[in-house]
Design brief:
The complex is a heterodimer. By secondary structure, chain A is an alpha+beta fold. Helices cover about 35% and strands about 25% of the residues of chain A. In chain A, α6 crosses α8. The longest helix of chain A is centred in the middle third of the chain and has 11 residues. Classes of the chains: A alpha+beta, B mainly alpha.
Chain lengths: ~400, ~425
């Protein structure tokens, strides 16, 4: 095992014991699902960069760097975008540690010899690596601290690029994390960087991530995401959350986002944003499953199958009578256990707790907790359903700092 | 049914208004956008007028009258240029200066700059506490009470507040510097002389003059001011499309800073210089002003000094936290307490450790302050050369990198600062 810092600035000597130059960088080639392999080293030759291919290197170690021949280096070597310069592109940059779920700075790089070839295996983020690079590694007080390695496979670059290589899915590894973990990670970045990450990951994940970001960080972050991306992300959000987001935006930004949203969606969300946030109207989503009284269990289940992708979570089915008023509710459990041709109106419970649009959020939470409701309908004067509130909408009210 | 239609129509109308705003509405939106950008430049500028700054301006006016005002005019331009560089670097890269230095220069250089800045900042915070102590003396308040109260207040404001509330308090504090403008008018200065001193450069070939002139520049152009303006713009999350507005912010800040300095100088020039009273710090200036310009002047000077010290204290402590965390990859920000433990630990250490140090009896404060200024002047050339290199880096700055004109302007300013810092080092080494 060898550290990049131990190689940098070391003298390169050829087979005639003559010094060719001082090592400036180590070049690796990225390969899918494997550790990047060292393909050569670079030194400064007058004003140019000179490249020595790995095949020409006799010995690459902490003690010495020697070549097999004296004339095997090239000036003006054309690098492919797949080739990365370790010192220039990776050392001292910030990375996501996918396993440890944190943002760290690269203090050193660990190269390991695997079958005749060196590969970049790990990234050292310890303070010890810093001391080593400053030449203080042997100081008695500093010697005890340990190296902390992050496996290359658990590293995702924050910049989204590596050298000149522009990646199609720059945050592939990051996206595999739970949205709450991604949120925790990006909170460590500057708004400039975190907004870039949010814009680069797919919209569905981005919507979930935004749902998890701390409220103090969310508002400035939203302002920083460009309107087009934000509109796309809002489309993926449940309407109640999307309405909340729009409400939190500054007026200029909100207008921009409205312009990018489709007209229908914009109208819809605009109506929702007019409800006050701390009232039932602001908490509710307008996506819910409703069926007429005389429909059968089979038909109801068929409807769920058809529309399931429009809804976040379904706990109850709301039954409406001929005039469109709320008649009762049926739980999913009841529905699953009933025979296919049973009529819904024979199954539903007719005593239904409801709230009004202007019921304070606290009161909604109280009612839902008291009666153990997973979802509650928000109705108007005529008992028509305007939306529903599900338990996950009020959880934040119950345990605010979770 | 009709009612429902009417309602839908009304909703559609409000939506229409939101999507296609009218003229008046547009003006309001523009104003909102300006408010969202403005702030860091003004705060960074005014914070340069900290306790050390006020003391220097008071001494300049008391010892040299209106003669050095032209240097203030020069400083306004240099400050505007250097602060704009910091703002642009922050807006385009989205990173603080310390982070950029770490990523683009050697680790040794990073550690060197960070270590010196850290020491200089700590000494500077001592100066802020010392400013508060001297005002406490004027009003007969025990020093340790004043120092502890100040430390606690600043810690609570930054630790408990959100970015927005902290910024509001900082901006209010910047406005309170108006006290010095009033004090300037109360002193009934000779406006004709003041104007002449501002326009016509005069040089005196003696040590005192040079020393004071260098101190005057050194107190306004600081390493921490440079770090702060960039990190604060980044922390605020101002996007690069607002570069123009940020420039306005920075220029306003530089102008206001030096306008305040101008009024402090003429206040002491019109009174203390005229009667030949020598002073060494800002509190002495406040006391000396009482018989000459009335007790209101004294109170304005004293409370102005408290305000300046508090703002300086908060800003420098925050800067120290920004610099160290950025350099070592523990980035933090004002809005996220839980996620930025390193940032808040450093901030807390800066505020309270220096409070404890300043309360040590018989602490040789003057050598510490001189040392702080020396360190600051020493690190400035390294810092500005790094900044200029970064501003010319195509991968970082893209189309916003320095053009020929900006480069000439920046190198002139930086060259001037380097010459000044070398002079100071030279004069300190060959003191006698």
């Amino acid at each position: 095992m060898i550290f990049l810092s131990q190689l940098l600035k070391s003298e390169i000597t050829d087979n005639k014991q003559e010094v060719v130059g001082k090592l400036k960088d180590v070049v690796v080639e990225t390969r899918k699902n494997e550790y990047p392999q060292v393909i050569g080293i670079v030194f400064q030759h007058k004003k140019d960069l000179a490249f020595i291919p790995y095949a020409c290197i006799e010995n690459l170690s902490r003690a010495e760097i020697t070549l097999k021949k004296s004339d095997c280096w090239k000036i003006n070597y054309e690098f492919s975008p797949k080739e990365i310069f370790l010192a220039r592109d990776i050392l001292d940059e910030q990375i996501f540690d996918i396993k440890g779920i944190r943002v760290v700075r690269v203090n050193d790089l660990q190269l390991v010899k695997i079958d005749e070839n060196f590969s970049l295996v790990g990234i050292d983020v310890s303070t010890k690596a810093l001391f080593r690079r400053l030449g203080l590694a042997d100081w008695p007080l500093l010697r005890s601290s340990e190296s902390k390695f992050i496996d290359w496979h658990n590293v995702n670059f924050i910049k989204g690029t590596m050298g000149s290589l522009k990646l199609k899915t720059p945050y592939q590894k990051l996206q595999k994390l739970h949205p709450a973990d991604i949120a925790n990670l990006i909170e460590n970045l500057t708004l400039h960087e975190s907004s870039k990450v949010v814009q680069a990951i797919d919209e569905e994940t981005a919507a979930e991530v935004l749902g998890e970001v701390e409220p103090e960080y969310k508002d400035p972050l939203l302002e920083h995401i460009n309107a087009k991306n934000l509109a796309g992300i809002l489309e993926e959000m449940p309407t109640d959350e999307a309405a909340d987001v729009l409400q939190d935006l500054s007026e200029p930004k909100r207008i921009e986002v409205f312009r990018k949203l489709g007209m229908r969606k914009a109208k819809y969300l605009h109506n929702l944003t007019k409800y006050e946030e701390d009232k039932a109207g602001g908490l509710m989503t307008t996506e819910f499953m409703s069926v007429p009284e005389d429909c059968s269990v089979r038909q109801a289940i068929h409807k769920i199958h058809q529309k399931s992708d429009e809804h976040g979570s379904i706990y109850h089915i709301f039954v409406v009578n001929g005039e469109g008023r709320l008649a009762g509710i049926v739980s999913i459990r009841t529905l699953l256990l009933a025979k296919g041709n049973t009529k819904i109106k024979d199954l539903m419970s007719r005593i239904v707790r409801t709230v009004r649009i202007r019921t304070p959020a606290k009161e909604v939470a109280r009612i839902m907790t008291k009666y153990n409701l997973l979802s509650v309908a928000v109705v108007d004067k005529q008992k028509k359903i305007r939306g529903i509130i599900t338990v996950d909408d009020i959880m934040r009210l119950l345990v605010p700092d979770a | 049914m009709l009612k429902k239609n009417a309602k839908t129509l009304e909703n559609a109308k409000t939506l229409e208004k939101e999507i296609r705003p009218g003229k008046f509405h547009l003006a309001k939106l523009k104003f909102l956008m300006i408010l969202a950008v403005i702030g860091p430049g003004i705060i960074a500028g005014t914070a340069d007028n900290d306790a050390g700054g006020i003391a220097t301006y008071s001494v300049v006016g008391a010892s040299f009258g209106y003669k050095m005002l032209w240097i203030l005019v020069l400083i306004t331009f240099i400050l505007a240029i250097t602060q704009e560089m910091g703002a642009r670097l922050g807006l385009v890269s989205g990173k603080g200066l310390a982070a950029l230095i770490r990523e683009n220069f050697s680790l040794k250089m990073t550690v060197f700059i960070v270590a010196i800045t850290f020491l200089a900042n700590m000494a500077n915070i001592l100066a802020e506490y010392a400013g508060i102590s001297t005002v406490a003396d004027i009003y007969g308040v025990p020093r340790y009470i004043a120092v502890l109260l100040a430390g606690l207040a600043i810690w609570a404001i930054v630790y408990k507040g959100s970015f927005k509330s902290v910024q509001k308090i900082f901006l209010t504090s910047s406005l309170l510097f108006l006290a010095y403008v009033i004090a300037g008018f109360l002193a009934r200065p000779d406006w004709h002389e003041a104007l002449k001193g501002s326009i016509i450069p005069t040089l005196e070939w003696n040590r005192d003059y040079f020393y004071t002139a260098v101190a005057l520049i050194g107190t306004t152009i600081t390493a921490w001011g440079q770090f702060f303006v960039q990190s604060y713009f980044v922390d605020k999350g101002v996007a690069s499309e607002h570069l123009k507005l940020s420039r306005v912010d920075v220029y306003l800040g530089s102008l206001w800073t030096n306008l305040v300095a101008f009024f402090i100088v003429i206040a002491t020039a019109a009174t203390l210089f005229k009667t030949g009273i020598k002073i060494e710090d800002a509190a002495q200036a406040a006391k000396a002003l009482e018989p000459l310009a009335g007790s209101l002047s004294k109170h304005l000077f004293a409370w102005g000094l408290i305000n300046a010290s508090l703002l300086g204290l908060a800003v420098i402590a925050m800067t120290t936290a920004y610099v160290v965390t950025e350099a070592f990859g523990w980035e933090g920000r004002v809005d996220l307490k839980k996620e930025s433990p390193a940032f808040y630990k450093l901030f807390t250490i800066c505020v309270f450790l220096s409070a404890a140090i300043v309360l040590i009896p018989k602490l040789p404060l003057i050598p510490i302050l001189v040392g702080s200024q020396m360190l600051n002047t020493f690190v400035l050339p390294f810092l500005f050369i790094a900044i200029l290199k970064l501003l010319n880096n195509k991968t970082i700055m893209g189309k916003h990198r320095n053009g020929l004109f900006l480069n000439i302007l920046s190198w002139l300013s930086v060259g001037f600062l380097i010459a000044m810092s070398l002079t100071l080092v030279f004069m300190t080494v060959f003191r006698h």
